């Protein structure tokens, strides 16, 4: 307060910049005084240190309103280094990826890792481990597990409630997760939910949704009071489709999120700043775009001291050269340049692949009915379609048929060496030979593998066990390229540039093998998520998400 009054000098004064008030959307030509990592005054100030930012634009640090750090395939320290360079100074993370692999111990370890980071990581307590009864994590979460996480200081609510059929039906076990008495802040996940079902879902106390695919769906959710988190992930790119919601109805109840963004997207385009840039390109004013990237995200998640350059707010400040590229000239975190730390992962976080032996016969599919259900991959979407196809038979088995773009898909349980394998077929993949597989397989993160050759599928799976998880491509019965992800089978311990280069090399190889999918590894990982319509696969078999039940491969 003494600094705010002008009685004492500030630690730092930024002078000469145009300062955005996110509350009025005005640009103020004032100094910004910083003390103890917080903004204490706007006006004319003296400081022990002065930073001349003449002619630049000062905006609050960007906030990602919903994301999964693990999807970056980076350890949290390397992730922080990557996104801070693009102006993201805080994220609201759902750690349900590591939760499925390592349980609450994994989340507590992740939270401990974040203590010394220059990035503010706030966590929502994972609500759906597993995402549904059709998935097989290391162990299911109980309400008690959720309560233990909610008692951590940086846990700010309940993470996306993906079991929307259970909530809508009034399932006591699902509602108990929302009624702990420790929080009333709950994130949603309700793809395609409309009408009375949506009313019931919101009535359970769920206040956000990031799964709207169409403008009409997003508008209905916003009309009913939900926060609409506009998403721009590696494959679920909904930003441009949903921006008319902002153009017509303003920025209220809208914020930005990346959900699942891979290294190449961050390297090429950035993070939340990419969403701000695209919004402006699409006709949203720079002021409105920044508001959705800052104060709206903070308000949505009740982060009362983040999201603004104003007295009492944390001094997370971006210095921008222009209002088109949104590439920061410099980033201040709590009033200073970010100081990075290097983290090490303990051995128990690295030993997570427990697999029963597999060989080519593990992936044989006996012939049977005349037709089979086939999962249709939809480009740049999490949703899939379903087709009825006459299978190709060789001997007594159903086999892949690359001439018709019919490839085999399997999910292999990897937490308890149970030997359980779900088998099916997919189309619109393009793979002509070989196989590729990953331990990143939402949400239970068993091994998901696509292939046209059973021996190559087995080679992928065997190699994943040897390297402690990751992504593997096989051809000719052996692994030919790989990206180890030894930390929970989800994250690398290598720098961003190295991970990015390896993934790009592997994507080029897949293209040469005929794969036509954009973001093939991210797309592969979501084919196992049993709460996104229409047909998915887990280690327990094919899941009809609309009917929310397991269905056989064959159709009588």
Summarize the structure.
It contains 17 helices and 32 strands. With 556 residues, it is α/β, with parallel strands linked by helices.
Your description of this structure?
The structure is a single chain. This protein is 28% helix and 27% strand. Strand 23 and strand 24 form a beta hairpin. The protein starts with a helix and ends with a strand. The model has no long low-confidence stretch (mean pLDDT 96). It is globular and about 85 Å long. Strands 19, 20, 23, 24, 25, 26, 27, 28 and 32 form a 9-stranded mixed sheet that branches. It has a 5-stranded mixed sheet with strand order 3-2-7-16-17, with no helix packed on it. Strands 8-9-10-11-12 form a 5-stranded parallel sheet. Helix 11 runs antiparallel to helix 12 (286-293). The chain has 556 residues and is α/β, with parallel strands linked by helices.
């Amino acid at each position: 307060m003494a600094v705010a009054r002008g009685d004492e000098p500030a630690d730092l004064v930024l002078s000469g910049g145009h300062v955005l008030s996110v509350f009025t959307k005005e640009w103020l030509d004032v100094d910004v005084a910083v003390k103890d990592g917080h903004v204490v005054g706007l006006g004319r100030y003296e400081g022990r240190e002065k930073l001349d930012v003449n002619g630049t634009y000062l905006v609050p640090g960007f906030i990602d309103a919903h994301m999964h750090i693990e999807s970056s395939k980076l350890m949290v320290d390397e992730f922080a280094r990557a996104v801070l360079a693009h102006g993201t100074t805080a994220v609201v993370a759902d750690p349900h990826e590591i939760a499925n692999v390592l349980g609450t111990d994994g989340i507590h370890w992740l939270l401990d890792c974040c203590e010394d980071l220059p990035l503010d990581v706030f966590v929502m307590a994972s609500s759906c481990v597993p995402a549904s009864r059709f998935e097989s994590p290391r162990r299911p979460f109980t309400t008690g597990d959720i309560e233990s996480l909610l008692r951590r200081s940086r846990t700010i609510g309940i993470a996306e409630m993906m079991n929307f059929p259970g909530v809508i039906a009034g399932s006591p076990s699902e509602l108990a997760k929302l009624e702990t008495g420790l929080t009333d802040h709950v994130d949603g996940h309700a793809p395609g939910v409309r009408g009375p079902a949506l009313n019931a879902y919101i009535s359970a106390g769920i206040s956000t949704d990031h799964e709207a695919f169409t403008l009409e769906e997003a508008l209905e959710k916003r009309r009913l009071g939900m926060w609409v988190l506009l998403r721009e992930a590696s494959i679920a790119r909904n930003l441009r489709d949903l921006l008319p919601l902002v153009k017509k109805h303003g920025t209220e109840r809208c914020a930005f999120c990346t959900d699942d963004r891979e290294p190449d997207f961050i390297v090429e385009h950035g993070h939340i700043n990419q969403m701000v840039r695209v919004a402006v390109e699409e006709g949203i004013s720079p002021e409105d775009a920044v508001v959705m990237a800052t104060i709206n995200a903070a308000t949505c998640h009740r982060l009362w001291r983040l999201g603004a350059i104003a007295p009492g707010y944390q001094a997370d400040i971006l210095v921008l050269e222009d209002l088109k590229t949104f590439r920061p000239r410099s980033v201040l975190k709590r009033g200073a340049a970010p100081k990075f730390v290097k983290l090490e992962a303990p051995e128990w976080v690295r030993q997570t692949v427990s697999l029963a032996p597999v060989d080519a016969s593990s992936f044989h599919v006996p012939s049977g009915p005349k037709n089979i259900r086939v999962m249709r991959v939809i480009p740049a979407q999490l949703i899939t379609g379903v087709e009825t196809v006459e299978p190709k038979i060789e001997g007594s088995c159903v086999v892949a048929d690359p001439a018709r773009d019919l490839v085999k898909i399997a999910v292999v349980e990897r937490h308890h060496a149970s030997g359980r394998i779900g088998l099916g077929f997919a189309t619109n993949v393009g793979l002509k030979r070989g196989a590729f597989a990953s331990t990143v397989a939402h949400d239970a993160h068993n091994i998901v593998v696509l292939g046209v050759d059973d021996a190559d599928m087995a080679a992928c799976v065997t190699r994943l066990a040897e390297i402690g998880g990751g992504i593997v491509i096989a051809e000719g019965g052996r692994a030919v390229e790989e990206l180890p992800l030894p930390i929970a089978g989800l994250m690398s311990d290598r720098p961003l540039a190295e991970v990015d280069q390896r993934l790009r090399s592997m994507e080029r190889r897949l293209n040469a093998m005929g794969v036509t999918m954009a973001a093939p590894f991210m797309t592969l990982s979501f084919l196992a998520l049993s709460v996104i319509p229409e047909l998915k696969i887990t280690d327990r078999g094919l899941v009809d998400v609309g009917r929310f039940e397991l269905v056989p491969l064959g159709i009588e």
